């Protein structure tokens, strides 16, 4: 199949590369000339484990190419995927900004040749596929096309595995012809027994929001339970195990922490709230999850302050991990972005380390943070250490060395990586979340 991917952001790049790995011929288009130059020089603009090797392999085998020329890329494609950004609108009202989706639709319309399926890959509100269809029809009344929805469920840091071994593939289609094209594209997965859920375009669009909202609710639920555990003297880790083993609940996404972040849950929960309001409905459970999440981030500031004896003023805090999760350099909505400025404002000194995110962090965090080469340098002379993101290299720290480097042996573990008893034995004043 000939596939065109419009947008070489996270989703476009991973999806395009994986389709090429399936054996399809993929052209990735982006307006950003520098980015395309970079990709053509073999440089990957994001950090995603395994992506660089896969891009290199498929470029070499001539199944993957990058261009700024939309006309050549769209003509002759069996399917054109829209994988452009849908950020939260600048109006600050929570709506997803669809400008890029609509601009790309208008632009590609004139270049369509033969039957083509236009596939919404970006996370878009219900009804967007119909709008895309209308825009293309108006721009090119003769075009022979269908619009489909094919939401992605890729986790940053694990995107390639998620793509190659998905729990399911969701396709929203309005014709058998479109369904056949999409089934053909995903055939290699079908052979591996990954189920395909075929439904209407509206349902597919909503499935994406419902999945992310449900996961956000699950995280906020366990974060609230962690707070309850702290109040009653229970242990949330055992609690999560105790409920998660019930197959109806499931053990995944029951890890308490400083609140969810990233480019998806915060944006998609807000967008879902706005979408349903337009229809006179509400998603009060999702609204509560959003509220609990921002309270959780604020609560972490108090947790750190309390661990320091009631005030962070004049104290030096070592921070391990800045990105919203491990195995990414993405800082969007990272808990660190809410927590660290609050500590800095009150006169704390921050010595931070992150394996991949320090450059990116500088765009999100105020000046005055000291970025250091490793966890041990961060801890040298600090009055407390805060484990913010559970990168693998922070999971087996030399605790005796950390203890000897710290001014005061205070360890605030916002991801519950360490065992409280072991930490106490090592002489740390140890604080976790919900235990
Ligand atoms: C999420 C979804 O998991 C993907 O299925 C979806 O495709 C993607 O959004 C998207 O819409 O594009 P992602 O944001 O990359 O993926 O990362 P997650 O692994 O879901 O983590 C999101 C946040 O939740 C992180 O801040 C993480 O630390 C937090 N989290 C996750 C918890 O606090 N506890 C958990 O148990 C799990």
Task: Please outline the helices and strands.
Layout: E1 2-6, H1 10-22, E2 25-29, H2 33-40, H3 51-60, E3 64-67, H4 70-74, E4 79-82, H5 99-109, E5 116-120, H6 128-139, E6 145-149, H7 159-164, E7 169-172, H8 176-185, H9 187-190, E8 196-199, H10 201-232, H11 236-244, H12 265-278, H13 284-307, E9 316-320, H14 335-345, E10 349-353, H15 358-361, E11 370-371, H16 375-379, E12 384-387, H17 399-405, E13 410-413, H18 420-425, E14 429-431
Parallel strand pairs: 1-2, 1-4, 2-3, 4-5, 5-6, 7-8, 9-10, 9-12, 10-11, 12-13, 13-14
Helix pairs in contact: 1-3, 5-6, 10-11, 10-12, 10-13, 12-13, 13-14
The chain binds uridine-5'-diphosphate-glucuronic acid.
Uridine-5'-diphosphate-glucuronic acid is lined by residues 123, 152-156, 212, 215, 219, 253-255, 257, 260-262, 264-265, 324-325.
CATH class of the largest domain: Alpha Beta
What binds here, in terms of ligands, is:
uridine-5'-diphosphate-glucuronic acid
Given as residue ranges, the uncertain stretches (5+ residues, pLDDT < 50) are none
Query: How many helices in DSSP terms?
Result: 18
Largest sheet: 6 strands, parallel
**In the CATH scheme, what's the topology name of the largest domain?**
Rossmann fold
Q: Would you write up a description of this structure?
A:
The protein has three domains: 2-199, Rossmann fold (3-Layer(aba) Sandwich); 209-290, N-(1-d-carboxylethyl)-l-norvaline Dehydrogenase, domain 2 (Orthogonal Bundle), CATH 1.10.1040; 297-431, NAD(P)-binding Rossmann-like Domain (Rossmann fold), CATH 3.40.50.720. The strands form three sheets. A six-stranded parallel β-sheet has the order 3-2-1-4-5-6, with helices on both faces. Strands 11-10-9-12-13-14 form a six-stranded parallel β-sheet. It has 18 helices and 14 strands. Strand 9 (316-320), helix 14 (335-345) and strand 10 (349-353) form a beta-alpha-beta unit. It is of the alpha/beta class. Helix 1 (10-22) packs across helix 3 (51-60) and helix 13 (284-307) packs across helix 14. Bound molecules: uridine-5'-diphosphate-glucuronic acid. Residues 123, 152-156, 212, 215, 219, 253-255, 257, 260-262, 264-265, 324-325 line the site of uridine-5'-diphosphate-glucuronic acid.
